[in-house]
Amino acid sequence: MSENENDRKPVAGPTPPLSKAKKQTNRRRFLRTTLLTGGVLGAALSGFLPIIYSQKKRLRPPGALDEKDFLGSCIKCGQCVQVCPVQAIKLADLIDGMGVGTPYIDPRNQACDFSCDAVQCILACPTGSLVYHKPDFLPVRVGAALQAKPTLLAKEKDAEPTLNMNERIGVARLSRPEACLAIQGKGFKGQARGAEFKGKLRYMDVDRWKPIKVSEHPYDIPECDLCVRACPIKGAISIETVFAPDGSQRKSPVVHEPCVGCGVCEMICPVEPTAITIEAGEVWKI
Amino acid sequence: MSDVLKRRFTEQIKIMFGWEPKKPEKITERAQQVHVLKRMTNKQDLIAVKAHLRAHEVKSTKWRNRRWFTLIIANLLFTFSFFLDIQILEGALTASRFVGFHLIDLNSALQVMLAHKHIINNLVIGTGTVLLLWALLGGRTFCSWVCPYHLVAEWAEKIHLYLAKKKLVTDQTMDRRLRTVFWIIFALLALATGYTVFEAISPTGILSRALIYGPGLALLWVLALLFFEVFFSRRAWCRYACPIGLTYGVVGIISPVRIKYKLEGCFHEGDCRKVCLVPHVLDTVIKGRAVDTEVPIGPDCTRCGLCVDACPTGSLSFEVKGLQKLL
Q1: pLDDT in tens, A119-138
Q2: B180 C-beta neighbours (distance < 10 Å), count
Q3: Three-state SS for B190?
Q4: Which chain A residues are closer than 8 Å to B91 by Cβ?
Q5: Between chains, do A101 and B122 touch, taking CB under 8 Å as contact?
Q6: Backbone phi and psi for residue B280, each to the nearest 5 degrees, phi listed first
Q7: In chain A, domain spans
Q8: Which among A145, A13, A123 has a CA at the least distance from the CA of A61?
Q9: pTM of the predicted model as reported, rounded to 2 decimal places
């Protein structure tokens, strides 16, 4: 081996003691490595923020597993985003605190109106984060299960009028009844959300296959019932006569059990801020 | 495979997990002869030949160009499939559909399986397809031919090397075993917390999604990594941290696509090691180290072809094992 003109030490034979300089280099290298480990793991901790924030409810796409299972199974590929015909699904960013790259719906800006007819996002999901049927070992929360498969008004006359959904993603709630035009007995005239609003909705009387901008479909109605008109699910919401505490009669939107939490009512509500909101992940309570 | 090459094969796997390359204990007789002959060559003659070769050297970027082209096209295919709705490659690098067929990134799939502990058919199909694909194409070929972070890191590396030449920065090397440690930590974290932690900081996923769905603040993390690589440690993420690289490296162990080293014409000048992302795999080109006259490069190699371009003597080339015999 000694005739070898290699500058490196031969492996065989006892290892000579390390020089002081070499020891110092090694120590520095160890420190740097530890530093990088700390840095990367520190950054990885930010990945846990959504777990900490999981108390804060957020609306996931239809068929989403319960939040913790959803976060564990989502591969963050955005295929659900790609198939949505109204671009209701967005991917969360770093500061949204719901997991970088996970999908969510902001119903006030663009609700899911089931324009796709078949819950395409569930079909697109490669990992089972969005499912028609939960696997057996995942429990279904009481009230999250729908009593019957929801009937989509748009295909009510089709051979198969229902959506293949077994659980709701939330429930609509009249959060600010005092602002509701129906309760005040007022009508509505004009563009529901103003001229600048970019949200889309499918109007069966305009085009069965192509959703249009809400701003392109102005209304003129004597008594506001926009949430009921826009709702894509049969029997999920209606205007009912209710009695106020003082005994006086009023009209009011009332949410019923078939509500899946799609958020169309929240999107269409013409008052600012909205009078009706989606409680994400909420279950039906009698 | 001879005993010597078999021994080298297992050595190379250990090297991928972070061991340092050692001088080989056994070298075939033929290779030993070449080593001896090289030592006997007249030094003046050798210098003259080297100088002649240098003078007539043509700097090639053939493989780099092919690779950059492939990488950019692959990523643009994702972008345009969504942007122009041509639906060829839908999804992002973590999971996608190529004209309807599921493709799922192996490391992301692993994270999801460990975190969710439930595996559906689509996940198995997609993972299987990708596993087969990259086992055939070379494992870490994914890194240099597809991963968008690899490309931006390559550009950052150019800045780093420029600054290093001006003596403004020095490459701070680290312990390569760190990558294996990270791989284990992230796997355990996914298993224990039920959440795919690594996906939150994976620059591959962040960049891929940014290219398809538009930029976000998560890109700041990618910028921080690039900053670190420019000013402190050359290609630190790919070399010492990325568990995706290790996952694909393991897939590439049995891959037929690889770089082959021919001992005979090599002048042992080390140009290949200077351009290499993983110079430990090119340990065999050091004078006296090659265990045989032809040596396949180990699984940690990303098959980027920079060494093939850089080699002035043509001693390094792409090889598809088994195909040469057929042709």
Answers
A1: 999 999 999 999 998 988 88
A2: 15
A3: helix
A4: 77-79, 82, 126
A5: no
A6: -65, -25
A7: 57-280
A8: A123
A9: 0.88
A24 touches chain B (CB under 8 A): no
Which ipTM score applies to this complex?
0.87
* pLDDT of the residue at B161: 96
Q: Does A261 touch chain B (CB under 8 A)?
A: no
Residue carrying the six token digits 């009844």: A177
Residues B78/B208, Cβ–Cβ less than 8 Å:
yes
Quote the Cα angle for A16-A22-A28, to 5°: 140
Q: Supply the mean pLDDT for chain A.
A: 88
Task: Point out the least confidently predicted range of A234-248, B161-175, B281-295.
Answer: A234-248
Q: Amino acid letter at A10?
A: P
Q: What is the DSSP string of A38-97?
A: HHHHHHHHGGGHHHHGGGS--PPPTTBPPHHHHHHH-----HHHHH-TT--EEE--GGGS
Per-residue pLDDT of B98-108, as tens digits, reads 988 899 999 99
Where exactly are the structural domains of chain B?
A: 3-57+256-326, 63-250
By C-alpha distance, which of A81, A272, A196 is closest to B85? A81
Rg of chain B over all Cα atoms, to the nearest angstrom: 21
- Provide, as residue numbers in chain A, all residues whose Cβ is less than 8 Å from the Cβ of B192: none
Strand partners, A212: A201
Instruction: Please give the interface size between A and B, counted as residue pairs whose CB atoms are below 8 Å apart.
Output: 176
